[in-house]
Amino acid sequence: MVKHRTSVRSTKHRVCVRRRTIGGATKVSVLRNVSHPPVTVDVTPVTTTSSLDEHSEAEPSSSCMSETAYTKAKKKELRAWDSLKEDMLRVSYESSAPSTNICALCKEHAEYRCLECSSTNMFCETCITKTHRNSLHLPEKWNKTLYVTSPLELALRLPGEHCSHAVYARDMKIFVNTGQLCSFSVTLCTCEPETCTLLRYGIWPATPERPQTAFSIALLELFHYLSMECQVSVEGFCNMLRWKNNLSLSEVNMLYRALVGESISQFRHHHFRCRSLSGLCPSFDDGTTCPVCPKSNGNLIVTMDAYFGLVRKRSSGSSLVEPLHGNRMFVREEDVQEYLSSHPDGSKPNEDCSNFKAGNLLRSQKNPQKLDVTGVFGVSCRHEIPLVFLNMTQGERKKQKQCNKTYLWLFQHFMFLVINYSVRFCTVRED
């Protein structure tokens, strides 16, 4: 039976958009299927559904044919990479052998190379020795088949003005830039401590007195930045060097044991003092002050939060020395306890208060009696610069007493005007 029906259709048009970039080039984008307000029209009689099926099948094909300028550029880039894959693979294989046997400096016969200096230059034995004096690079020698570790002596020598002093040399194990442990002959002088002489060579000692092992400063800086920015652990860093530089398992184990020592903490502190220019000018800050936030007048917007996953067991004991950074970031425990004991708080939370229960679920998995620090409370400005931290001895589990007094302590010391806290908390006021 022939049926008549009324349908709603949207007229579709192509819209061409021209954009002029900063460089002056014009980009053209085509916007398809731009619909206008619907128009009601009478449709011709429909006897079968075959025409509708053909139309529905033709629509996807037409949409597939329409490509934007970005899609075309992306496909063009992929085709260019595909056409170069085989040539680039061939060049990589050819680079495994020397491209020339002429020294880049003296034009004599060459059979040495240093990948840390250049991937194409070749050197003779005399030139490689001169250019790599007091260097932690590891040259390689071509033996007609492959490159092997150079048999040249690795030495670190003092400049000529130290000849008049008592100069002596001894062997030392050094972790070079690649993480390998190599034996060097190091020249030292009695005019200054051995650690200072090693620092002139660009290496960091593992012990303060008569060090037998040292690290390349470039290696420690790489470890420092990866641990700070990428949260890479010591084990992950050692495994990375193992796969990148083909280290043996014994070398990785020795490097791991060396990186967890006290010397690495001392290097971090030394690196911080060098970056903050500590001691050069009294007007310089210590690098922990936000350069944007107001220092005297104005509203200081801060963010407060507590993390109850950072706990400390009582069985851990106490530190033998003061923190390397002093009270730059963490408030002294004596000051916090003295303030809390001198400001009793007997108030009770109202019915709308959450009673500071954020850490209950996390801390219920541990025995609180075995902990002397149940969390860390911190404050940072809105530019993500940390301002101050303090240890929580009770946290949010035992009511809100210490938290309220902690807030008051922070208010008295920093006079915050605008506060952003991660959870809703009680109104802080000082009676």
From TrEMBL:
One Pfam assignment: KDZ
Annotated Low complexity bias: 41-51
Signal peptide: none
Region (Disordered) location: 41-65
Residue span(s) of domain CxC2-like cysteine cluster KDZ transposase-associated: 159-243
Protein name as it appears in the record: Uncharacterized protein LOC114865522 isoform X4
